[in-house]
Amino acid sequence: MKRSTIILVLLLALVGNLVAQPTAESDAKPYAIGISKMMSHPALDAIEQGIIDHLNTTDHQITYDLQNCNAEISTAIAIAQKFKSDKKDLVIGIATPPAQALAQVITDKPVVFGAITDPLAAGLVANYDKTEETNIAGISDLNPLRLQLETYFRIVQPKRLGMIYTSSEANGVAQMELARKICEDNNVTFVAAAVSNSAEVKMAAQSIIDRIDAMYVAIDNTVVSAIPSVSEVCAKAGIPLFNTDTTSSRNIDFLMSWGFDYYTVGIETGKVVERILNGEKPKDIGAVFFEDPSQFELWFNLDVAKNLGITIPNDLLESAKVLIQNGRKVPFSSIVHP
Predict the structure, then answer these.
(1) Which of 17-21, 105-109, 230-234 has the lowest mean pLDDT?
(2) Res 130: pLDDT
(3) Residue 76 near residue 36, CB atoms below 8 Å
(4) Cα distance from N-terminal residue to C-terminal residue, the chain
(5) Residue 19: helix, strand or coil by DSSP?
(6) Residue 313 carries which DSSP code?
(7) Res. 210 pLDDT band, cuts 50 70 90
(8) Cα 316 versus chain centre, distance
(9) Closest CA to 77 of 96, 35, 109, 105
């Protein structure tokens, strides 16, 4: 065979090989991610948006399947089964029941949880020392309950604290028990009312409002979804309200709100997803907790404080992220003192 013919054959083979093997970039398929949300309310919607917004800043191509189980456990399980049959590359559960359903049904793909107060009590992690092999990781929204409640006690000096919680949700029960212990330690009578769905929240508030002089709402999705009704009952009775979910505190008559901006929780959950897509194992991530005080926001409504005759110490006002006076947000330097 002539030299020129050999060179031509080799060139044709090389070109054929390049055509037959596209680049990794052109061959890559988008990651299919399923998100199962407990219900639609401001905090959970903010988490979902934060997840998507963060992942959209990465180099990963992603398609999303957004599902809402409307606080129905059976629906959460059905969504998990759908994600499994659809062979999602990764699934995300926002709030405890959806995350638990995903963890139960999907064992061969990564499961990421967002806003789980106590992942251990919820059965999503076996321990916090990352020694167990697992396909589950995520973000906890555990609040510093003792610091929050004892600060609230300093302001309102209650004799009887009321709390509404969801009896079927592990997070709600865990926070209720901790709040009860904190009240005992501070010689405050604890008055709890259990609910099973959001339709019962207003009635629960009405059932205890005459037996308390302060109300506390923890991070409990069912209760927070009906927070305007709790605010209404408290305002009518002249009882101060501490709502730990700042995202849902807009446009309600709270005295104090201290917790997360849940959009930030969504961003942090998105970062966990990104780490997994980049090749990190869920086992090596585990449950991520917020430890930086700057990640929590303290709000006070000075209009409510004035109506109730409550004085908030200046050191707390100075440290607040949001102060509301005359119906609008104002800086500490602009507060009009009576």
Answers:
(1) 17-21
(2) 80
(3) yes
(4) 103
(5) helix
(6) P
(7) very high
(8) 25
(9) 105
The tokens describing 68, both together, are 């809402």
95: left (phi over 0), alpha (psi -120 to 50) or beta: left
Alpha carbon of 38 to those of 100, 230, 322: distances in Å? 11, 20, 28
What one-character-per-residue DSSP string does 90-155 give?
A: EEEEESHHHHHHHHHH--SS-EEEES-S-TTTTTS-S-SSS-S--SEEEE-----HHHHHHHHHHH
**Ordered alpha helix ranges (H), 2-72:** 3-20, 24-27, 42-55
Which residue type occupies 93? G
User: In a 10 Å sphere around its CB, with 0-12 CB exposed, 13-18 middle and 19+ buried, how is residue 226 labelled?
Assistant: buried
| Beta-strand pair 322-325/328-330 | antiparallel
Can you say how many angstroms the Cα of residue 137 is from the centroid of all Cα atoms in its chain?
A: 14
Query: Is residue 247 classed as helix, strand or coil in its secondary structure?
Result: helix
Q: 10 Å Cβ neighbour count for 49?
A: 15
Whole-number Å distance between alpha carbons of 246 and 90: 29
Q: Which two three-digit tokens encode residue 243? A: 């709502």
Give the residue among 254, 261, 159 at the shortest CA–CA distance from 216: 254
Residue 55, amino acid: L
d(CA 243, CA 314): 20
Q: Which of 290, 311, 271, 313 is nearest to 55 (CA)?
A: 271
pLDDT cut 90: percent of the chain above it: 72
pLDDT reported for residue 335 = 76
- Residue 42 CA to residue 299 CA, distance in Å, equals 17
Most confident of 131-135, 146-150, 290-294: 146-150
Which amino acid type is present at position 31? Y
Q: At what angle do helices 96-105 and 73-85 cross, to 10 degrees?
A: 40
User: Would you give the DSSP letter of residue 31?
Assistant: E
Q: Which of 64, 42, 38 is nearest to 53 (CA)?
A: 64
